[in-house]
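Entry for the shared binder. Reason: the reviewer on the internal report wants the predicted structure included alongside the sequence.
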Amino acid sequence: MKALRFTLIIPLLLFAISCKKSANNPTASVTTDEAMDMAVGAISANSFGFASVADNISANAQNVNSVNGGGQAVNSTGTASVHQACGTTVADSLNFNGSNSAVTFTAFYKYMRTLNCNANNQPDNLINSITFHGSFDGPRLSSTDSGTSTVTIGGLSSSATNFVINGTYTRNGAFNSKVGSKASGNSTVVITASNVTLSKPGRAVVSGSAVITVSGTAPSGAFNFTGNLVFNGNNQATLTIGTNVYLVNLLTGAYTKK
């Protein structure tokens, strides 16, 4: 498994137990900014979000090469690598923990990768079926999560100038916020990605878009937010939730309201 190139970790809500002014408010409603924290967490690589998945599957796709005698190699170009024939599925996994940009995290990802080839028996795309679980703690949010993702990455042929990713990423978790009304509860974040384009061979996200929904329950009741994400290049993206527009750093998960 290749090392992640960019790591966008979601700023997670930390469960803070104290009294009086520092205690979480059990009746607090989830604000737009708190929903933004959950969305950015599901996007950022340093919170094992969609961006880290995109980088990982593109790093893997970059190493799909023809092998003497037929078949393709996944994860390595050496003769001792795991060979994968067209139309077959192989399992892969990633287990990591650490800290980055004031976020502490631990995560486990399991991949099932199906290789599809073109009429000339050359690699064309990989369908990645993913399950994951983990936890993270950041300056604004802490969360324990699990989820699934099904994404297809195209552009594997040598003539393609970019990788292109389409698919969904779903993350379910229990969250605690450290900011605003300090809401807590359960959340579901769904990212539906459309034509997310990564450069070859650098794997930088250069364009694409996604629809993001953030929903769940808190002591004050249910909440539901929908946002539109546009990848701007240079590790930046713009996320619009309602009338609020945020500029997101995909590497650190930091954001500013415009």
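Summary line for the report: Residues 1-25, 66-80 have pLDDT under 50 and may be disordered.
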